[in-house]
Amino acid sequence: MNRLKAIAAGLLPAIVFLLPVASPGADGFPRVNGIPTLAPVLKKVIPAVVNISTEKTVLVRRRGFPFQNDPFFRRFFDSVPERRDDGTREQRRSGIGSGVIIDAAEGYVITNNHVIDGADNVYVTLGDGRRFEAEVVGTDPETDVAVIRIEAEDLVEIPLGDSENLQVGDFAVAIGNPFRLGQTVTLGIISALGRSGLGIESYEDFIQTDASINPGNSGGALINMKGELVGINTAIIGPNANIGIGFAIPVNMAMNVTGQLIKHGEVRRGRLGVVVQPLTADLAQAFGLDSRKGAVIVEVEPESPADEAGLMPGDVVLSVDDEPIDSSANMRNYIGLLRVGSKVKLDILRDGREKTLTAVIVARKLVATEGGRIDRRLGGAKLVVQEETETARAGVLLKEVAQGSPARRNGLRTGDLILSVNRRRVKNIEQMRDLVEKGRPILLNMLRGKRAMFLALRP
Question: What is the pLDDT of residues 406-434, one digit of tens each?
Fold first, then answer.
């Protein structure tokens, strides 16, 4: 026995030596036994990245048997799909994407709006194979951010990084579900920062990366070498597959939007009341500026916060809340993410002199919106405000209700005028939004033509 103990003691150093030992290298990559590897980082992060699948009903138009809607012929051809009056028929379609768990306790998952847009059902599959149907918490098409929620135990949330600290040349890792393959990891670098004007979203401040991003990666994670989330993979340049140019929403922007989606189900953007344009070289020279950084105010809306603060056309905005403004897109992004009631400090240049003005952001007046932004049951309905006239009552008008949409299946039709929600009078979209409670019945009092009616929408 003593001899065995001695042999074991002699082997112990060798056994310890053979165990993997992770240590950082000079290049920033973790090392195991001296070999660069991301495995220790990814082992902690991958469980927080999920696969998302969706199902939705769409209408397709196709040629069919000319008598397929005739009851006599359908007795003999039961397999022939019945066409609708407009020559279309409903078809179920599926989609794929990715998501990132940001709150394990509450089950919140962040993804792209375009991944779940119009979906009737959303499913989340975890790395361990468990599958859950998800609830849509809120969406923001203007930044392409959405939040969904699952009820599950033993979830792993991802650590959050700071996208403001990113630099061109930093290593970046994309994790997602390309082409339905399941969790896939690709490595690249940060190729550029602050990409805008691409026409992908209304608010653009993209991180550009050459880490391979393909269809199905949308909504997945872009992480740094510490395993921290720095972006949400969103788009690529290329027809069908990655060519080395991919874009991600910075995590700081995404989390700003996420907080409002969780609280309100939507982003309640504020309004300053200005129209701005880029500061070109010619304009910079005309304004006596050495730099082209800034945004030129070309129009101030009367009685807006900008007007009350004293802003004027021709003012050059140099910074907002001490954050330098590099371009008109930069200013639009910053103002667009401010919450209603926020006080904002603007450093401007007017007639060669710098001035500081303060404005209070107010709520944007909604004249139109997509019903799904208020509640999933209203999805596919375009809502517009109808002002009161001598011949028309004030209310929220359903200008269009898409065939096969949740709103259509819930009994809503194009031309319906909503007068009250849950027995409370509504004259605009803001009032309707405040009265609709997610997960609770919605009682609508409407006019359909000249006929008054009630319609109850169940959760």
Answer: 899 999 999 999 999 999 999 989 889 88
| CA 235/CA 140 separation, integer angstroms | 16
CATH class in words for 270-363: mainly beta
pLDDT in tens, 84-120: 555 566 677 888 999 999 999 999 999 999 999 888 8
Q: Which amino acid is at 344?
A: V
Say whether 419 sits in a helix, a strand or coil. strand
Q: Which residues does residue 195 pair with via DSSP β-bridges, in sequence order?
A: 206
Closest to 100 (Cα-Cα) out of 74, 75, 62, 127: 127
User: Rg of the chain's alpha carbons, rounded to an integer?
Assistant: 27
User: At which residue do the structure tokens 């299946």 appear?
Assistant: 409
Give CA torsion, residues 232, 233, 237, 241, to 10 deg.
-170
Beta strands 171-176 and 145-149: pairing type? unpaired
Whether 11 shows a pLDDT value over 80: the answer reads: no
CB atoms within 10 A of CB 164: 11
Provide the token pair at 314.
């021709």
Domain boundaries, the chain: 2-37, 38-267, 270-363, 368-457
The Cα 73–Cα 265 span in angstroms is: 49
CA distance 258 to 255: 5
Q: Which active-site residues does the annotation give?
A: 114, 144, 218
DSSP SS3 for 15: helix
CATH class as words, domain 368-457: mainly beta
Q: What phi and psi, each to the nearest 5 degrees, are found at residue 314?
A: 100, -15
| Cα separation, 309 vs 318, whole angstroms | 16
Q: Do domains 270-363 and 368-457 have the same CATH topology?
A: yes
Alpha-carbon span 285 to 438, nearest angstrom:
53
- CB-based contacts of 233: which residues, under 8 Å, 6+ apart? 98, 174, 176, 213, 217, 218, 219, 220, 221, 222, 246, 247, 248
pLDDT category of residue 370 using cuts at 50, 70 and 90? confident
Whether 139 and 261 have beta carbons less than 8 Å apart is answered as: yes
Torsions phi, psi for 93 (to 5 deg):
-130, 150
User: What global pTM score does this model have?
Assistant: 0.72
Select 38-267's CATH number: 3.40.50.970, 2.40.10.120, 1.20.1440.20, 2.60.40.2470: 2.40.10.120
